[in-house]
Amino acid sequence: MRAQVAVVLVLTGDAAWAGTAKVALLFMTYGDLPLERLWRRWFEGATGLVYRGCQPESSEATSECFSHLEAEENHSPIASQHLFNVYVHPKPDFPGFQPDSIFTGYELSHRVDSRWAFSSTAMYTLVHAAVHNPSNAFFVLLSEACVPLYPATVVYLQLVSEPRSRLNAGCAGAPEFGKNVHHTSDSVRRRLDEEAVSWVKSATWAVLNRKHAEIVSRTHDDFLLSLPDEWYLSTVLYTHNLQNETTCDWQGPTYQEWTAADTDHSVTYHSVTLDMLRRMRLGSSYVGVVCDWEAAISQAADPGRFGDTRMQKWRGEARAFQAMNDTCPLFMRKLAPDGQASFMAALWEGELPAAGNLARKSLHGGKARKLVDV
């Protein structure tokens, strides 16, 4: 699906938010975020920027677009940008981030216990907290091992161009990620069968649009919250008959590599090269999907797509953004802390479009995937 960025009007139940639409980044973590150095530089790339969709027909700055925003270059990188809001859900006994951390002050005050495969209540808590901010148009679930595959401007422009949530909510004919609910109790499995609830798994790390996030926030059901996290969001949307408003992609927005030797845990990367990063951007979800990431990076670098609070004006002539297919990955996991330096070098070296095409092969040198080259 290709789309053009237009005015973002965020529906919020009884009212509509017509200001600068933002993307909520929802970090679900046990404690510290060990890849903070990477995230710091990533947020710094969005310092002072305002989405041009605020006034797409005007070539001049207007008070409505800038009056409620301040240039905060002397604040933390998160506070100095206006494209993303950040929410962090660590475990309840987490003492807090260090004072100089960019994530200090973004932890949720209300936290719940969670464990591997059972973090649905923590997911609900994050979405419920973020929905209260009417500027949040999209909601991205991330772990401490997730990192972006693109600069902040690309991720933002791509997400605000997409009407659908990124997950598979039981779409008919969609690839299945397995039906064996092996972490779920017999009583839950019996109820799933009795109520004919979708058994199609979807990745925990998903993207919800505003409409779907509000539905999740309103659906506080103990039974649904007892499901393993890979069933939770897809089941909620399925019960509301919204599966066709999703991308039907079980991998969501996040690239992960799996091996036959371990189907429960995705591969952890301790080093990432530029070539590996580019292959991750190609994705692995559907045959025939083209992820034109070079064009996306080039378009996002056009200064006309954003205004700047530091100059209180638009930075150039407005132009539409031609989005990638909405199944193309925007993040990856799992990146180990010792892989952070190599990934940062690849990410910021890779901002410039690469020459030539890349074959879609396994990152581990295995058999080539049967996917279309870009």
Automatic annotation (TrEMBL):
<dbReference type="InterPro" id="IPR003406">
    <property type="entry name" value="Glyco_trans_14"/>
</dbReference>
<keyword id="KW-0472">Membrane</keyword>
<dbReference type="GO" id="GO:0016757">
    <property type="term" value="F:glycosyltransferase activity"/>
</dbReference>
<protein>
    <submittedName>
        <fullName>Uncharacterized protein</fullName>
    </submittedName>
</protein>
<dbReference type="GO" id="GO:0016020">
    <property type="term" value="C:membrane"/>
</dbReference>
<dbReference type="InterPro" id="IPR044174">
    <property type="entry name" value="BC10-like"/>
</dbReference>
<keyword id="KW-0325">Glycoprotein</keyword>
<dbReference type="Pfam" id="PF02485">
    <property type="entry name" value="Branch"/>
</dbReference>
<keyword id="KW-0328">Glycosyltransferase</keyword>
<keyword id="KW-0808">Transferase</keyword>
